[in-house]
Amino acid sequence: MRILNFGSLNLDIVFDVDHIAREGETIASSRREVLIGGKGLNQSIALSRAGAEVYHAGAVGVDGAVLVQALKDAGVHTRYVQKVEGPSGQAVIQLAADGQNTIITHMGANGCISKAFIDEVLSDFTRGDLLILQNEISNVPYAIERASRSGIQIAINLAPITPPVFEYPLDLVDILIVNETEGAALAEENGESGYESILSKLHQRFPHMLIVLTVGKDGVLCCDRGQSYRYGVYRVPVIDSTGAGDTFSGFFIAYLTRGSSVPEALEYASCAGGIAVTKKGAAACIPTRDEVEAFRRENTVSYI
Ligand code: RIB
Question: DSSP code of 261?
Fold first, then answer.
């Protein structure tokens, strides 16, 4: 099985702030950095650090050499990353003192993924291969349909959730990874009836799917064609939660494709996410497999 991640590459402009700016408020940042990011790029690096061989497809702008180099440095194949006119994707991130964030993205080059380019890349992949998607590039629904027609398995991390998502052909997807906000929106729940209810509604709607619902400080719930699993969290100091979800997704898929059971993949992905929040930066925070193994030996998971 070959793994293709068709996803965004962003320059993350990170502003350290005391607290997230409220509506109408102007605040000063104590530090500004431009870091490597994008949910697609972060997940490719996580997959590779978890030991998977991964091909990244996407687009960068004239300022994107640093993004391609970051993928190469992590051992990701970059032959399907296009260079287009204009700027690369960007994210403006407020990083608060408690490690929480807000993110505003601008698609830039990520919005230049055409149906023709998707056809061209997917023609190199075949039945039994795996396509990984997030929701930060253009023509995601087309990529799902095109991959499905070729018998390619599809995993999607449906982030960020946007109005068009409700029209995506999600019944063609094999693995769905969402957080509680995305899951509640997709399940048409307000979240008040609890995580199990969200998961159960998603399972009713997509009974064939492996569904992963990450629920922040409460860990993760999962339903694999009717079989349910839960995994807790590691109590660690949170420095920056940016990229922790991408780290989790990349490790989860990498371990599954390397033959781990669902509970084992959840455990390793949770360890990787637990390390990611203790470091700054979306891509810079992603641990190696050895670091994850060591963390797993030295830490105990807790359940609320
Ligand atoms: O998930 C974190 C990522 O979301 C950031 O790197 C940012 O670029 C946005 O895509």
Answer: -
Q: How far is the CA of 226 from the centre of ligand 1 (A)?
A: 31
CA-closest residue to ligand 1 atom 7: 38
Q: With bands split at pLDDT 50, 70 and 90, how would you rate the model's confidence at 115?
A: very high
> What is the per-residue pLDDT for 225?
83
- Which of 242, 249, 277, 280 has the most ligand 1 atoms within 8 A of CB, as the residue to mutate? 242
Nearest to 138 by CA among 174, 172, 171, 162: 162
C-beta separation of 7 from 40 below 8 A: yes
Rounded to the nearest 5 percent, the helix, strand and coil shares of the chain are 35, 25, 40
Place of tokens 């399940």: 187
Ligand 1 centre from 243 Cα, in Å?
A: 6
d(CA 157, CA 84): 25
pLDDT of 51 strictly over 90: yes
